Amino acid sequence: MTDPHRLAFAPADADALPLHVVRQEDAGDFLAGQPLAARTWLEAQGWTGAAGDPVLLAGDGGAVAGAVMGLGDATARARQRFAVARAAAKLPAGVWTLKGDLTAEERDEAALGWLLAGYRFDRYRSTKAPGARLVAPDGCDARRIEVIANAEALTRDLINTPAADMGPAELQAAVVAMAERHAARLTCILGDDLLAQNLPMIHAVGRASPRAPRLLDLRWGDSGPSVTLVGKGVCFDTGGLDLKPASGLLLMKKDMGGAATVIGLAEMIMATRLPVRLRVLIPAVENAVSGNAMRPRDILTSRKGLTVEVNNTDAEGRLVLADAMALACEDAPDLLVTMATLTGAARVALGADLPPYYTDDDTVAQALDQAARRVRDPVWRMPFWDAYEPQIEPGIADLDNAPGGGMAGSITAALFLRRFADAPRYVHFDIYCNQISDAPARPKGGVGQGARALFAALPAVLGV
Hints:
With 464 residues, the protein is α/β, with parallel strands linked by helices. It folds into two domains: 17-129, Leucine Aminopeptidase, subunit E, domain 1, CATH 3.40.220.10; 146-462, Aminopeptidase. It has helices spanning 27-32, 36-44, 74-79, 85-90, 104-117, 142-160, 168-182, 193-196, 200-206, 246-249, 257-271, 317-329, 344-350, 362-375, 409-418, 451-462, and strands at residues 17-23, 55-58, 64-72, 94-99, 132-134, 185-190, 214-220, 226-231, 233-237, 277-287, 299-301, 307-309, 335-340, 356-358, 380-382, 399-400, 426-430, 434-435, 445-446. The two termini are 31 Å apart. It comes from Gemmobacter megaterium. This is Leucyl aminopeptidase.
């Protein structure tokens, strides 16, 4: 799995070429301040500061002397994240340094985007990373940005790995490696021991697969407020007996994206030594089909004691999360977070790039919204809409895992999970974890969502 230090800045003492980044509204002043040859060349290229690829500048003898890149106007800057990362793939190999009147947030975004532009998933095919490297910009916390970039690379590697090579055991191996890096404590409840230890819904979802279900339980830190992260680790989701169509199976290797994102977030927390008591719970299962698979209309009794009617075996993620959440809340964490690739309804509502989150705590929501904008990791608050609670109450059992009607699916899933969240502060993220097409710093494929926003918000939320 990924080297936690593979994405790194160039040495600060390297002989670096300048990359001038310029807002469109500042393009005139920038041109006026350039030597005649450079100004003439840029004007001949039609450079106006509009968003686009960098333009090379020539020095004595025709050698590359630097480059200029337009950031566009305010509308363009709002529409595209990590614009400067485009330069990493376009500039010639060598060491570069950023020049320009950037805010602290723009500088950090550019630095992180440049590192993320170097990500390649090369487990099955050799690929070459860009040769243009960046010196960490003055004023940025270089180590913190490297930690975030490599944690995101770890998340992407886990999601991108096909299910044949990323089952529950392999997901456990990734957590073991992380625990060893940070001297964390890890336990695993495996197979039928899930029943003995009263985790029946995790067992019910995973029992049909020959790859044994398990609950991974990592703990780190001995002081500070307690944070528990619960990530959905469904390593492949056939839909169970409510089998998905062929088209619906194509992305199901990413159904452990919640676990992968939680692992990346935990890596950020531990690598930066955030003063918290961290717990990570990952129910790792494969939702398969066999003679002992759970059936539609089965009624399961959860760890919390609530009964659940299974009205769709393809709504399995909330079942495994519920048992893990009940276990988490027995320790009364100060903050409980769930991350899961849970519903298609979230994508219908907000699309692939904007994951919803749910919380009843306005202070947490304010901190998250501010952090998300600051670090360009967009999330959007959705409501725990109490009026929909009757939809998840089937009558024959306490809860319905898949209420009919076809509306508000992300909200009713969140309401289901809230029934198991006996914590003073709870946040649920319904993430997608898939980049549909290439974008700056985000190649097509697996991607983390919400982790950087939450990581940036934690100090304000927890007072650390």
